[in-house]
Amino acid sequence: MPDDKTIGPFEGRRRFPGISSRAYEHPSDRAALVAMRRLSGFDLILKQMSGLVSERAIRLAFLAGSVRVGEQQFHRLHEMVRESAYILDLPAVPELFVTQDPQPNAMAIGMDKPFIVVTSGLVELLDDDEMRTVIGHETGHILSGHAVYRTMLLILTRFAAALSGIPLGTIGVHAIITALQEWFRKSEVSCDRAGLLVGQDPEVAMRALMKVAGGSQLHEMSTDAFLEQAAEYEGAGDLRDSVLKLMNLLGRSHPFPVVRVAELRKWADGDDYRRILAGEYPRREDDPNASVREEAKASANAYRESVRTTTDPLFGLLRDLADGAADAGGKLRDRFAGRRAESGPSPDGGMSPNGGARPDDHTPPSRGGTSTE
Questions:
Q1: Among 56, 137, 139, 154, who pairs with 195 as Cys (CB 3.0-4.6 Å)?
Q2: Are residues 281 and 234 in the same domain?
Q3: What total number of domains does the chain contain?
Q4: 322 is in which domain, residue-wise?
């Protein structure tokens, strides 16, 4: 229960006591986080490595140059962050700042005592219901502990820049950074789901993402048409477009809005969301017992399923090649087994009636005609 003593129940939306972030995390995000949490002292090392970027200094900068949300300042936002903490059962209500910036954006900052920052551009763009899902999204980042692991990405990015003058010095680091950026994008998908758990209205959650993509003229937009855009983007064009889509992702910290809306729609229509609303979800108290192997398997299955169902030309080709290779391998195995069967001995020392070998005879005859055993 959040430690704000004035907080109380919020009518109309379900609360999830003791909910674990594993309930809403994308399988790839969840697998990485479970593995990281099992590394004893990992977060302490990161905090020491990031000491040059003081969390206290960053908070002081926002305290001095932005507006802290409270009972007398942006009261409606204050109620939203309290509500988000109540619904997701955070141990404490995070501070929330509004900073002057026309670019719509929001972020969760800090490891010891995380806080949320939203820009004035975002406040002006979204209505109350939409803003609630965004604050829920950032609250999800705090519950998942994403700030600790995003710090690693920041450190490695700086490390790569320091090695930029050394030939081949950054190849391995860039490979790690690329993998971390992929996880970063999946963590955004996770927290879109957290925002939905707070707002509990899929149409509102998708509408907020549409506004971030296209501006405030909501009467000029359609959720159905935007989802059609997402389907067209996924399966668009030929192999050239597939390669261009991959190149466009390089260096991006967030998935494209149409992808996020499509992912959110899929999750809102699925069983996981319904089970959570019904009170069936993993509890925080069980997090230490989460299996790294099982989460890694779930992550692999998620990628396998996405490749199986995608309409993207490149991944479709890779899927077909993999299926073809498996089919060819099966035919080769059958053909090889058939030829072995033709020369196999029958139970009476000759050839069996069907030309096959004895099922339990796996030892080829020696040169002297007798078995080695």
A1: 137
A2: yes
A3: 2
A4: 315-357
Let me know whether 299 and 348 are in one domain. Answer: no
Q: Kindly report the length of the chain.
A: 373
pTM of the model: 0.71
Q: Any idea which residues carry the catalytic annotation? A: 138
Same domain, residue pair 232 and 200: yes
pLDDT tens digits for range 46-69? 666 555 456 778 889 999 999 999
Q: Please give the backbone phi and psi of residue 106, each rounded to the nearest 5 degrees, phi first.
A: -150, 150
pLDDT tens-digit profile of 122-159? Answer: 999 999 999 999 999 999 999 988 876 666 656 656 65
Quick check: helix, strand or coil at residue 119? strand
Helices 171-199 & 27-37 angle (0-180, nearest 10): 110
How far is residue 70's CA from residue 85's CA, in Å, rounded to a whole number?
14
pLDDT of the residue at 224: 94
Q: Does residue 259 carry a pLDDT above 80?
A: yes
Helix/strand number for the chain, H first, E second: 15, 4
Among the listed residues 140, 289, 116, 300, the one whose alpha carbon sits nearest the alpha carbon of residue 205: 140
Q: Which residues contact 116 (CB under 8 A, 6 or more apart)?
A: 81, 94, 95, 96, 97, 106, 107, 108, 109, 135, 138, 139, 142
